[in-house]
Amino acid sequence: MKSVLSNKKFWLLMLTLVFMCLMLSGCIPGTRDTDAPAGFFWGIWHGWIAPVSLVVSIFNKSANIYEINNIGFWYDFGFYMAVVSGFGGLAISRKKSKRIKISDE
I want to staple 29 with a disulfide (CB 3.0 to 4.6 A). Which of 14, 67, 90, 105 is the partner? Predict the structure, then answer.
């Protein structure tokens, strides 16, 4: 039986995970150089990466979880919609219950 640490798929997955975290950290709220307020789609994006933003904000004081410079209701709606849905997490975590049919004999 192979060790988990010698498995190529494991290391490829870990490398991909690290790469994605680094890529996501470039879009964290509070780090944009533009004065344009964040809209609905930025709200969705910031809601999806909220867990990553939380960790980065511990080490980087200019990073936030929530974009302060936003357009209001539509940013809030997109942000909370993404946080609640968890990037499809609700649909992925649900399991179909197996119904056992008891036949009357």
Answer: 67
